[in-house]
Each structure stands twice: as structure tokens, then as C-alpha cells.
Design brief:
heterodimer, A: alpha/beta, Rossmann fold, five-stranded parallel beta sheet, 19 strands, 18% strand, B: mainly alpha, Non-ribosomal Peptide Synthetase Peptidyl Carrier Protein, Chain A, 4 helices, 0% strand
Chain lengths: 622, 81
């Protein structure tokens, strides 16, 4: 006899297998008909959402002035291919304004994580706007623009106050047709300028906003081709605002945001060398024989490296995994006049004759990131297949056979997006290089203590302020290993905690050593109760693990608690697949076990001491 | 040719409405198929149009109630089926 739960397990396994079969079908032949069919089949599976962990769930609300239903098929399937379990709510046709204004609407009851607002300009302008455009005065055009902006502002402020969802608003497609024809630019605000200026004002409204993002829908449409964005037959028959072939492009654009929100962002690009960073094979063609420089195809390789450098500058880590003689390859990296990427740009290198799968695992360990944060770029299809099969977590890019198309293949990935870009992100590449130097120093030291003393570390501890908030959000959402509870919070949730000073304290930890400034690398969120502080979150970037800096951070919080007359500190540890390194954190610091996963420190009896190799500076908030 | 067209139409029906290809005959009608709602109908028409390279008039679209009806319209538009 099967018990209830084991029966449920077998059925859920069968459903998972069926789901995989459906997704494989769509992947193999991604036609509109197959998307429709797969989506309907998935709906019929009646997947049990109750068993799905929060971090894999995503609730998407679509608000639109046109029939947007077919987009949900593409979003649903793309989310599932990314390992997520989506729930999608589609507001009734062209009722987005009512849905937003009515606080009892289904939209708010749905509690979305992400809201997509896709509104066509036509629905916000008088019916005769286009036909009369040539005759409308400039003042009147400006009035229309102001009205649209005001309307958006009102609707969006209702969304941001009524939900904690990430709000995506499409900007307007600048029409390619204008009744003024070639004279559109010769009048004071032609039709194209009208929309161009409208889009500009819309973007400016939300530059600083952490919850609202303006999607460059005009840019997406241009990239695909504006004349192909609409299927007129389906548009007039059923108000379908996106043509069948445009739907996957639109879904991919939104997936960039969804992946960023759900922390599915890739952090590191692992590169092959021969025929990937340069043309030819260094071991056969020699230093002078490889293709890299001003002539084709060398110029394409130079441009590809420039793209990688631009990613490096925004915080993507680069690494090398190549089958080569180390001396041959490193000579090119160090000395070739046309190399754009040099040794200092690579966080780690594996240039050897070892299996590439082994190398990947070692690189992940050395850089201290998960394999699921890595992208593998290699021109050799066999190497790609081997890595793909052995390490399915790694994103293996289907590189085109022509090197001229490498750049585009990498530009098309939507996996590097983050919702915030911090100063630390921009410095990341350098920090990894410095850390490589640091570990070389460690090798030359006798004891760990000597090594730690030699680093001359300073810890700067501060309450989170507006300046550090984006970094705090980024750490809270990205840190996996040294993270005691792995609780994720959105930027607006964190901002709210920061403002409720009597209920919460948000501490940040910045580390400086003789090699340089690591920036903010640790965050602690304290929930304050009378007499007791609960450590809701305590986390530290993997960059500084192993330097006992966490002890200094905890000691400073404990001292602060004492100063505030608190008698007990409670710490929690929630086990995940990745946070093993933080497991014994509380017992190691004198906390005693209260119940499963809960540790307590009695401040009247004990305390936490700052280690001698860290100089702590507590700074007041700005 | 007609055999091939028939198969293609059958595939569209099966995939749009999630039914077995064996269940599809000329008599199969809108009221027999749960998924054949207005959205499904438009999807069917759009797929038939792009597959066979035809344009079906709105009058015909509203008249189509069975698999046989669609074949009739296609024949009228010069498709051998």
C-alpha cells in the first residue's frame, strides 16, 4: 500500500517527466502552433504549486490596452525553461486602468511579483489624433504629452503603493509612418518627435526608481523590424497587438527582467582561447600566425574581445578554460599587440591539457561561485556538448560557426542583467585579480594568523544609507554561501525596513586591506524586539570568506546591542544547498542552541570578541 | 498533394484543440470540442491561413462550424484538400 505522500511523490515525478517532454517538444520545433499547444497541455497538467519553493515561483500580471493573451504562452514556457514555475494573470481586455484604480480588483488580490504594463499610444489619444495630427498646434501636442505622462504617473504610483511588484512599463513604438512623410523633421514637433519626446520624458521620470523600469519597447520593435511587429489581420480581427513572430522577441526582453528579479543572473563568462578569442591555433600557427588585428577575420576577434571587456567593466567575471601549452597561450595574452583582454582581466585561468569539465569545476571553486552562475563560450562543438552534458547548470552558448557572428551571439543573451548596478559591480573584475595576488601571498606565509595579520584589514561598520542601499539589495539577493538565512528582499522592502528604525537595523560591512578597498561585502538585518534582537539576515560576500572578518562584524553588532540595553540575541540558521560554510557560525561564536536552527546569546553572560587582525571602525549614518 | 494537405490540417486541429488526430473527421464540430472557443477559433484560422497561404474572409470565418466547413472554404480558395 502506498502512503498518501509517496503516492503524491510518484504522481509529481510523472508530471515532471510530462512537463519536460512538453518543453522538449517546443524547444525542438519552436513554432507558434507548438507554443500554443504546449501552453494548453501545461495548463491541463494542473501542477501543484503548493510544493514549489518561493524562489522558483513567479507571479506575472499583464495589463494591456490590446489582446495580450498570446504573450502569456511565451512567457510561461520561457519561465519554465529557466526552471521557474510561473503564474500569469491577464487583466480583462483594455481594462488596465480600472484594474489599477480599483483597490479591490483581481490584480491586487493576485499579489504579483512583476507587473507588465503594455499600452498602445492610440488608446491614450483621441480617435482623430493621427488623422488631424498635421493640423494640431504645438501647444496642443504638448498638452497631449503632459496628459499621457500625468496619467501614467498616477497609475504607476498606485501600482507601486499598492503592490511590492517590479513594475515594467513599455515605452511607445515611434511610428515609422507619418503623414508628413519626408517633412516630419521640418515641422516643430513632427509625429516621430512627438513620440520620441514622450518616451524621453517617461524614462526620465523613473531613472532613480527602484521599483519601476521603463522597457525600451521601441528599441525592441526596431531590432526586430517595426513592419513585422503587427499582424494586421489578427490586429483587426481580435485586437492582437503583437504578431506571432514578434511574441518570442518580446518575451525574451521581459525574461531579462524576470531572470534578474529571480536571481538567475549569470556572473561569469568562461572562455576558450584558440578560435574563440583569436583566430587559429597558437600551438600550430604560432605567435605571428594567429588572426587578431586589423584584417579580417582578426578584426572580428578584436571586436568580440571588446564586447567581453565591456561586460567585464560592468561586473561580469571573465575566466579562461583552454587546452593549450600554458607558455604559448600566456605569451599571447601578455604580449600580443592586438589583445584587448590581458591577464588582469581574468579572475582565474585554466590553460592545460586537462578535461574541460574538470577545469570548469576547478574554476567555479577558485572564483567561489556556483556553476549555475557560469556561461561557457567555446567554438568547438564537442567541448560544448561535453560540458553541457556533464554540467547542465552551466549555460553553454551555441556559438555560430562564423567568428563574424560571435559578438552578436553573446549580445543576444539576456542572462547578465541585474536590477541594480553598484560601484562594487564595476570594480569586481579588479578585485578578483587582487584576490589572486592575495592568495599567492597566503601561500608564502607560514600560519593563517600571520597571513591575516599581514593583510592589515580594516572593517568599517555603518547603518545602511541611501548610498549603500542598492549594494545591500544586491548582496541580499545574490549571496548564497555565507548567508545564514538566505532571505531575499526586494529593493522596496529593504527601503521600508531601513525607514522603520525602531523595528529594524540594517548594518553594512566594508572591508579594506593593504591590497585595496573591497567595498561593502557584508549585510546584517536585525529585527528589534524589546530586550531581544533577532538576526533576521547575516551574510557576507564569498570574496572575504576565510578571513574571520565575520567575527568582527558580529562583535560590533553585539556591542551595539549591549549599548542599547538588549539582553538576548537570537540567530537563525536556515540550511540551503549552498550555505554549508555558514553552518557553525553561531555555535562557533558562543551561541547556545535553543531549538532546531535557532541559537541564542545571553548578553549578560557572554560576548563576542573582535579578532586582533581586524581594526574595526563604526561610522555614524550619513 | 491532397493527402498531405489533409494531414497538415489534421495536425493543426490536433495541436490547437488538444485532440487525438484519430478523433478528427469532417463532422467534428465546434460544439463537440471544449477548447474550440473564440480565441481557439482565431488561432485555427490564423494557422490555416499561414499554412496554406490563403486569406479567409470574415464572412467565411463566422460560418465555419466543422472540420468539413474549413475544407470547403479551402477548396473554394483553390487548395486541393
Amino acid at each position: 500500500m502506498k502512503t498518501d505522500s509517496s503516492y503524491r511523490e510518484t504522481t509529481s515525478k510523472a508530471t515532471d517527466a510530462k512537463l519536460k517532454e512538453i518543453l522538449d517538444m517546443v524547444l525542438k520545433e519552436p513554432t507558434h502552433l507548438n507554443y500554443w499547444n504546449a501552453y494548453k497541455q501545461i495548463q491541463r497538467l494542473n501542477l501543484r504549486m503548493a510544493d514549489i519553493p518561493d524562489k522558483k515561483r513567479i507571479k506575472i500580471a499583464l495589463l494591456s490596452s490590446f489582446t495580450i493573451d498570446p504573450l502569456s504562452m511565451y512567457l510561461d514556457i520561457r519561465c519554465r525553461l529557466a526552471g521557474l514555475y510561473p503564474e500569469i494573470y491577464i487583466a480583462p481586455f483594455n481594462q488596465y486602468q480600472q484594474e489599477i484604480l480599483d483597490t479591490n480588483s483581481k490584480l491586487y488580490a493576485f499579489e504579483p511579483d512583476i507587473i507588465i504594463l503594455a499600452v498602445q499610444a492610440e488608446s491614450l489619444l483621441p480617435e482623430d489624433f493621427f488623422s488631424q495630427f498635421v493640423k494640431i498646434s504645438k501647444q496642443e501636442k504638448e498638452r497631449y504629452q503632459a496628459e499621457i505622462i500625468d496619467r501614467f504617473k498616477t497609475l504607476i504610483s498606485l501600482l507601486t503603493s499598492g503592490t511590492s511588484a517590479l513594475v515594467l512599463i513599455n515605452n511607445f513604438i515611434i511610428p515609422s509612418f507619418t503623414p508628413l512623410g519626408i517633412l516630419d523633421d521640418k515641422v516643430d514637433m513632427g509625429l516621430k518627435s512627438f513620440f520620441y519626446l514622450l518616451n524621453k520624458r517617461l524614462s526620465e521620470l523613473y531613472v532613480e526608481d527602484k521599483q519601476v523600469y521603463v522597457v525600451d519597447f521601441d528599441g525592441v520593435a526596431s531590432k526586430y523590424g517595426k513592419s513585422r511587429c503587427l499582424n494586421y489581420e489578427m490586429y483587426y480581427r481580435g485586437s492582437f497587438g503583437l504578431s506571432e513572430s514578434f511574441l518570442p522577441v518580446v518575451a525574451d526582453e521581459y525574461m531579462g527582467y524576470i531572470k534578474a528579479l529571480k536571481n538567475l543572473t549569470r556572473k561569469c563568462v568562461v572562455l576558450d582561447l584558440d578560435n574563440t578569442l583569436w583566430g587559429g591555433i597558437i600551438g600550430e600557427d604560432g605567435f605571428e600566425g594567429i588572426q587578431l588585428g586589423k584584417d579580417p577575420p582578426g578584426n572580428a576577434f578584436v571586436d568580440f574581445q571588446r564586447l567581453l571587456l565591456s561586460y567585464y567593466n560592468r561586473g561580469i567575471i571573465l575566466a579562461i578554460n583552454s587546452k593549450n601549452n600554458y607558455d604559448d597561450a600566456i605569451k599571447v595574452i601578455r604580449e600580443h599587440p592586438h589583445m584587448v583582454l590581458r591577464e588582469r582581466h581574468f579572475a582565474a585561468m585554466r590553460i592545460n591539457w586537462q578535461d574541460k569539465v574538470e577545469n570548469m569545476i576547478e574554476l567555479a571553486k577558485e572564483i567561489n561561485i556556483g556553476l549555475d552562475s557560469m556561461v561557457f563560450v567555446d567554438e568547438n562543438p564537442h567541448e560544448r556538448e561535453q560540458v553541457r552534458q556533464a554540467l547542465p547548470q552551466v549555460l553553454v552558448v551555441d556559438m555560430p560557426s562564423s567568428p563574424y557572428l560571435y559578438r552578436q551571439a553573446l549580445q543576444d543573451l539576456n542572462d547578465f542583467n541585474t536590477l541594480v548596478l553598484t560601484e562594487e559591480d564595476k570594480m569586481r573584475g579588479e578585485m578578483y585579480y587582487v584576490s589572486r595576488m592575495r592568495s599567492e601571498l597566503q601561500k608564502s606565509m607560514v600560519s593563517l594568523e600571520d597571513f591575516l595579520m599581514s593583510l592589515e584589514m580594516k572593517a568599517i561598520i555603518k547603518q545602511a544609507d541611501d548610498f549603500s542601499l542598492p549594494r545591500v539589495t544586491s548582496l541580499v539577493n545574490k549571496t548564497n554561501q555565507f548567508n545564514l538565512t538566505t532571505r531575499r528582499y526586494t529593493a522596496s522592502e529593504i527601503e521600508r525596513m531601513k525607514e522603520r528604525k525602531n523595528k529594524f537595523s540594517l548594518y553594512t560591512l566594508q572591508v579594506i586591506d593593504k591590497f585595496g578597498d573591497e567595498g561593502i561585502v557584508g549585510v546584517a538585518i536585525i529585527r528589534k524586539e524589546p530586550q531581544t534582537w533577532v538576526i533576521d539576515s547575516f551574510l557576507m560576500s564569498c570574496r572575504v570568506i576565510g578571513r574571520k572578518i565575520e567575527t568582527a562584524f558580529l562583535a560590533s553588532i553585539v556591542a551595539d546591542a549591549k549599548k542599547n540595553g538588549v539582553s538576548t540575541i537570537i540567530g537563525e540558521y536556515i540550511l540551503t544547498k549552498k550555505n554549508e560554510p555558514a553552518k557553525s557560525f553561531y555555535p562557533d561564536h558562543g551561541f547556545s542552541k535553543q531549538k532546531d536552527f535557532e541559537w541564542v546569546l545571553n548578553l549578560t553572560k557572554s560576548t563576542v570578541k573582535t579578532p586582533p587582525w581586524v581594526e574595526v571602525r563604526v561610522e555614524p549614518p550619513e | 498533394m491532397s493527402r498531405l494537405s489533409d494531414d497538415r490540417l489534421r495536425e493543426i486541429f490536433a495541436k490547437v484543440f488538444l485532440i487525438d488526430e484519430d478523433e478528427i473527421d469532417d463532422k467534428l464540430s465546434r460544439k463537440d470540442v471544449e477548447e474550440w472557443d473564440s480565441m481557439g477559433h482565431l488561432m485555427l484560422i490564423s494557422e490555416v491561413e499561414s499554412t496554406f497561404g490563403v486569406f479567409i474572409s470574415d464572412e467565411d470565418i463566422t460560418k465555419i462550424k466543422t472540420v468539413g466547413d474549413i475544407k470547403k472554404v479551402l477548396r473554394k480558395l483553390g487548395v486541393a484538400i
